[in-house]
Amino acid sequence: MKLQGNIAIVTGGTKGIGYGIACALAAEGARIVVVSRTAQDCERVAAEIKDTYGVETLALPTDVTETAQVEAMVQQTIERFSRIDILINNAGGAITKDAVDLTEEDWDKVLNLDLKSVFFCAQAVGKHMIEQGGGKIVNVASVLGLVADKRVLPYCVSKAGVLHMTKALALEWARHNVRVNAICPGYVVTDINRDELNDEKIKKALLSKFAIRRYAEVSEMTGAVVYMCSDESSYMTGQAMVIDGGWTCA
To answer: pTM score, two decimals?
Structure first.
C-alpha cells in the first residue's frame, strides 16, 4: 500500500493505459478521481474501482481541452478531498494522415488534446500542490516523442513537447516539492487498438522495430507510474522512463 490515502486524478482514466494506471494506483491505496469526457464511463469505472479495491472514488466527466472544465474538475476534487497528491496526465489521441493532407483543424485537435491540455491540467493541479507543500505529476508521453514515425506528425510533435514540458516544470517546481516525470510507452495493446495492431501488415512493420518482438501489455506500464508516484522515487524529477521493448536502443 505505497500510496495509502493519496488523492490521484487520472485523465483518460476509463480506457487503455489510463484505466490500468487508475487500477494500479487504487491497488496501492490511492483514492481515485476518474476523468474522461463521458459521464457514463467515468461513473462505471469509478464504481468498479471502488468495489474492487475498496478505495473512495470520484467520477468527474471533463473535456480536458477546455480550460474552464479543467479548473472546475480540480476545484471539485479539492472540495471533496481537500488536497491532490497525484496527477496522471494520460488523456490523448492521434490522427493518422499523410503530412501533406493535414488540416489546421487536425493540427489543433491533436495539439490541444496531447500538449495544451497536459500543461493546463498540470498548472491547475500544480497551484494546489505548491500550496499544500508537494505532489507528484506523471505525464504519459510516448516513444514517438523521442523518435519520429510516418503519418502521425502532430502526435510526434505533441509528445516531444510533453517531454520538454516535463523537464521545464520539474525545474520550476522542485523547490515546492512537486516532482514531475513522464513515461514513454511503445506500442501497447488495448481494447481501442487491438484489431488494428493485430492486422498482419501493420504487425509485420511494427514488430521489426522492437528488440523484444511483441507489443506491450497495459500492466507493463503501470509499475513505473506507481514507482514515480511513491516515496521510492523521491529523488527523481524531470525524467522520462522509456518502456518501448527496446525500440530506441538502436
So the answer is: 0.97
